[in-house]
Amino acid sequence: MGRRIAVIGAGATGLTCIKSCLDERLEPVCFERSKDIGGLWRFKEEAEAERASIYHSVIINTSKEMMCYSDFPIPDHFPNYMHNSRILEYFRMYAQHFDLTRHVRFQTAVRSVKKRPDFSRSGQWEVVSVSSAGQEQSETFDGVMVCTGHHTHPHMPLHDFPGIEKFGGQYFHSRDYKSPQEFQGKRVLVIGIGNSGGDIAVEMSGVAEQKSEPNDRTQLSNERSESVSQDLNPLQVFLSTRRGSWVLNRVSDNGFPVDMMYGTRVMALLWKYLPFSLLNWIGERKINTRFDHSLYGLQPEHRLFSQHPMVNDDLPNRILSGRVQVKPNVSEFRSASVVFQDGSVEDRIDVVVFATGYTFSFPFLDDSVLAVADNQVSLYKYVFPPALERPTLAVIGLIQPLGAIMPISELQARWATRVFAELQKLPLEKTMLKDIENKKKAMAKRYVLSQRHTIQVDYIPYMDELAAQLGVRPRLGWLLLRDMRLGLQLLLGPCTPYQYRLCGPGQWAGARRAILTQWDRVAKPLRTRVLPETPRPSTMPVLLKLSAACLLCTAASLYIHRYPPLFIQNPPPFIQRFVPNLG
Ligand code: NAP
């Protein structure tokens, strides 16, 4: 074992950092504030201070083949979209398999991380931690990996909601929402249409239908209880959004997971070369065939790919059956009612859930190391603070991808640990700053201006970018020649994380097999009533096939035009007989 690395947090990201340290023969010491691993994905009945908190029913919106660690496939019988308890089970299996938990100091919080006086020479850090018994300890580390996530601090923009102080009902942030039972029979308003807002509105609308007894409402004002007794069906969930949203489906064409159908390299090629507006047009047409977003009051002004994806299979159904009503932004709260920006008023709102997202911060770090302003940070490839004299601190998992976080965190961790081990170097500060600047500009150009769009990355381009740093980017052309079956899967099939274990440092012998059997693992949990044939997806939807074919033909003709092959420059006589002008 070599240099000591402090890993802060033992969630999905911290675990893979521990493993990456071990792979590079570094010595990890992981500080975990709570009693157990799993971070955000470990459900607790009560939200705990300084810890992310999820609701009981959360089902992840990325499929198992796309979200797993690259050298540890999720068991084939696990469902494709997993409940949080299954995800935790998978993390436990990962930790056990690679023997990671022995490196974790539980119930130990990091209080401060400071440069040592000789930092410019040694690159070392002074880490002060405190145990649950209050015992403080100061230690020196050669590197630090910050894995504290970005869903811990609720964004509660009460100043944007005039009159909230007069509101007599209950209100809270989605972080404190656990399950719908206690809201039976209430009239609920959910503000914000991210994935939390969508999930909570759908779930609450399942219980809000039951008729409430006036006794349940003794705490309400007279005005409120009086109107309840007059109303025959007072129960409802309202979902308020200030700009609408496009809604995607987990279940895609022929019932396959949406991220596997569209998270392909050929799709990434289209992304690179087709105009953004055309891509949006294709995507919007496609999702509007499921339900028309303007008919359902959800249509935003921005384009499909200008927002972080909202994935919800049940929301259209709830809107169509009237259980959820979509409303514009709130303009004012009154004691028992809410006025919306279109002038409509909803009386007797009992509960308001602010599903308004999260902000992040690093209270244990000095601003001179990493400053957060308006929910933005300056990190080279979202990992390294560019101005450090020595690259010995990395922030891992501080990204919001169009796809799963875990494999991205893993690739970041693999890269960072190789930099810590001095097997790789970072470019000059000015090059890093330029890269950061370009990324910020590209994000601002593409996404709607919002505090939630500050760390967005696209899954394949970003993974490839990291993989290129690390030397593990799959060599597609070479693979197509050498192992066509695998090469075609890489090009046309889903870009599953195993692709980044085919070559280079950290190569895994099981990667090829994992790629070739990925659709079997998709099918396995569905074969509960076995039929003679297991269907596989046609590798690409028709529209994409056409676009891909056009793109490939154009690329091929451009290439041939520029570098005419020998047989075209000097065609053999029998070809000249048929195509006389070819040469
Ligand atoms: P989010 O994605 O940040 O969405 C916040 C919502 O609140 C947006 O609609 C935002 O509108 C709105 N909002 C924020 N400030 C507002 C204001 N002042 N007035 C009105 N509206 C305001 O937060 P989230 O839904 O909690 O999701 C957080 C992360 O967890 C995301 O990465 C999400 O994908 C993930 N998540 C995943 C699952 C799952 O896997 N099943 C479930 C829940 C969450 P604007 O867009 O206009 O800013």
TrEMBL record:
One of its GO terms (cellular component) is endoplasmic reticulum membrane. InterPro entries: FAD/NAD-bd_sf (IPR036188), Flavin_mOase (IPR000960), Flavin_mOase-like (IPR020946), Flavin_mOase_5 (IPR002257), FMO-like (IPR050346). It is found in: Endoplasmic reticulum membrane; Microsome membrane. Keywords: Endoplasmic reticulum, FAD, Flavoprotein, Lipid metabolism, Membrane, Methylation, Microsome, Monooxygenase, NADP, Oxidoreductase, Phosphoprotein, Transmembrane, Transmembrane helix. It catalyses: hypotaurine + NADPH + O2 + H(+) = taurine + NADP(+) + H2O; sulcatone + NADPH + O2 + H(+) = 4-methylpent-3-en-1-yl acetate + NADP(+) + H2O; octan-3-one + NADPH + O2 + H(+) = pentyl propanoate + NADP(+) + H2O; N,N-dimethylaniline + NADPH + O2 + H(+) = N,N-dimethylaniline N-oxide + NADP(+) + H2O. Its cofactor is FAD. Its main location: endoplasmic reticulum. Residues 207-228 are annotated as: Disordered. Acts as a Baeyer-Villiger monooxygenase on a broad range of substrates. Catalyzes the insertion of an oxygen atom into a carbon-carbon bond adjacent to a carbonyl, which converts ketones to esters. Active on diverse carbonyl compounds, whereas soft nucleophiles are mostly non- or poorly reactive. In contrast with other forms of FMO it is non- or poorly active on 'classical' substrates such as drugs, pesticides, and dietary components containing soft nucleophilic heteroatoms. Able to oxidize drug molecules bearing a carbonyl group on an aliphatic chain, such as nabumetone and pentoxifylline. Broad spectrum monooxygenase that catalyzes the oxygenation of a wide variety of nitrogen- and sulfur-containing compounds including xenobiotics. Catalyzes the S-oxygenation of hypotaurine to produce taurine, an organic osmolyte involved in cell volume regulation as well as a variety of cytoprotective and developmental processes. Belongs to the FMO family. This is Flavin-containing monooxygenase. It comes from Acipenser ruthenus.
